[in-house]
Amino acid sequence: MSAAVIFDALLALLILVLAWRAVTDPLRFRAVVSFVALGLVLAVTWFRLSAPDLALAEAAVGSGLTGALLLAALRRWDERDVDGGESSERGEP
Amino acid sequence: MTGKLSAGILASGVFGALAWAVIRLPTPAPGLTDQAFGALDASGVTNPVTAVLLNYRSTDTLLELGVLLLAVVSIWALGRSTGAGFGRPPGPLFAGLLRVLLPLLVLFGGYLLWIGAFAPGGAFQGGALVGGAIVLAVLGGLSPSRFAGRPALLRVGLTAGLVVFASIGLAVMLAGGWFLDYPDGFAKTLILVIEAAATLSIGLTLGCLFIGGEPTADDRSEPSS
Amino acid sequence: MSAAPATLFLLVGAALFALGIAGVFRESEALRRIIAVNVMGSGVFLFLVAIAARGGGRPDPVPHAMVLTGIVVAVCATAVALALADAAHRSDHDDPDGGTR
């Protein structure tokens, strides 16, 4: 098996595992982190599929900024939940 | 439980349909590759993706800048921001990192803008870096309330991309062509001007998306929310 | 061997899309649904780029431009969706100073 095939198979596997965890992880924080990692692996995939412009944009905007937005929202909501008196830890199930 | 099961069945059905479509795709892959590369000389740039974005399908990019503006307006309509939610002033390590990173990000954004004509890059990538610089600055203590005093400056920056793009399109019409039909020989220059304005707008817009509210002066009693 | 990676990623893109749809219907929280919709979007982008790479040789630049536009629009939609969810969250908690962050 050539190295390219192994690389593609690994990429595909990583994408599927990260996407699965992003959607189904019981801790919200871990789901967001998986999503950010998914964006970065997708950026590598864009390179593999000969789309370098997309790789630049995905790494910065798709993964970086979306991740920052999600994490900021998550922190804001957790703080508000805690202030409101609920005993929810960070990343409630 | 049945709800989750039916969601799984739906997903499997969708995947099955898509997989069937993949198998049935025609083998000499049809596409617009030849047309896109064939017209590249007349388009004014050498990067085919930039040619598609700023020349062949320039109206789509114009509308995309409109979508960016619409997103900022919507978010501003939903609340204000004094930056209090972003908390602490930066520690010495982060401050030192910012001192190096922020100018580098802006410089690299400009570099990507310039090189987008003939290598991977362009307005969106450059704008993304500028937006990232703004996000870092906000996280490092730059308060959005600073912009509350002169909203005009921020608004000019946010709308510059869309306004320049549409103006050039209309000016070309006044000169006798179709909307956004660049005259021969001017395509390269016009694309660069449009992309420069777009980079500024995209960067500011992405930064405003992160800040999350219309910048307001810090005079309200502020519960941490 | 240049057409084979495209086919693999076509299927992966379809799988991501299906996974996202299942996530939208299964999850009840706003944040998780937003992540699921973004996963759907990523699946569509992967599908489009794989289609563009199918011929071997030079990739088709038109789907690349579409995906680039799509990435930017997706982040705008995510930001607005998060702001809406935040407004709902604020009203759930009866935030007295509703509207300032």
What are the key terms here?
heterotrimer, B: 225 residues, mainly alpha, two-stranded parallel sheet, 2 strands, 68% helix, 2% strand, C: 101 residues, Helix Hairpins, 77% helix, 0% strand, elongated
Question: Would you kindly provide a written description of the structure presented here, covering whatever features stand out?
Answer:
The complex is a heterotrimer of chains A (93), B (225) and C (101). Chain A is mostly helical. Chain A is built from 3 helices and no strands. Chain A has helices spanning 3-24, 28-48, 52-83. The radius of gyration of chain A is 16 Å and the shape is elongated. The termini of chain A are far apart. Chain B has one domain (2-215). The model of chain B is unreliable at 220-225 (pLDDT under 50). Chain C has 101 residues and is mainly alpha-helical. Chain C has a single domain (4-92), classed as Helix Hairpins (Orthogonal Bundle). In chain C, 77% of the residues lie in helices and 0% in strands. The termini of chain C are far apart. Chains in contact: A-B, A-C, B-C.
Topology record:
The complex is a heterotrimer of chains A (93), B (225) and C (101).
Chain A: H1 3-24, H2 28-48, H3 52-83
Chain B: H1 2-23, H2 33-38, H3 40-43, H4 48-56, H5 58-78, E1 80-81, H6 92-115, H7 123-139, H8 151-174, H9 187-211, E2 214-215
Parallel strand pairs in B: 1-2
Chain C: H1 4-26, H2 30-52, H3 61-92
